[in-house]
Design goal:
The protein has 137 residues and is mainly beta. It has one helix spanning 32-38, and strands at residues 5-8, 12-13, 27-28, 47-48, 59-70, 76-87, 112-115, 128-131.
């Protein structure tokens, strides 16, 4: 089996045989050592990384994909499982009523984006809120 990977936004391929229990969480971080030093209560077993690339503060399209078939040229194709096209809340345009629905408080004001309902559509700004950072929760 081939591993899952991020196919847009950042470059990260999960190690072979990584599984996540139903309702569990993992973290993919840029610098695992710095993250663990800053958040020592987060179990090391749920921290993955480092990834390459940089998530833009003003918004980014992040995609998680699973391996699909190999095409006729021998290239593995990937199937997008989840996509989040987030914004910082300050970029109206292209959305209903030209209103950027993403929370502004996560743009340099000390908050992070937190998904409110795991089972709901991830690419809906109404499914996200600005919250105090709580890694792994």
């Amino acid at each position: 089996d081939e591993p899952w990977k991020f196919t847009n936004g950042i470059d990260y391929t999960f190690p072979d045989n990584v599984t996540i229990a139903n309702g569990a969480r993992i973290l993919v971080v840029k610098n695992t050592t710095a993250f663990s030093a800053r958040y020592p209560t987060v179990p090391a077993g749920i921290i993955y990384g480092p990834y390459s690339g940089k998530l833009a503060n003003e918004g980014e399209q992040l995609e998680l994909s699973k391996p699909g078939d190999v095409d006729g040229l021998g290239v593995r194709q990937y199937i997008r499982i989840e996509r989040v096209d987030y914004s910082d809340g300050w970029h109206p345009g292209g959305e209903p009523g030209d209103v950027d629905l993403w929370p502004k408080e996560a743009d340099g004001l000390g908050k992070s984006l937190k998904r409110t309902t795991d089972s709901a559509y991830g690419n809906d700004p109404n499914n996200w809120t600005a919250a105090t950072p709580a890694p792994g929760s």
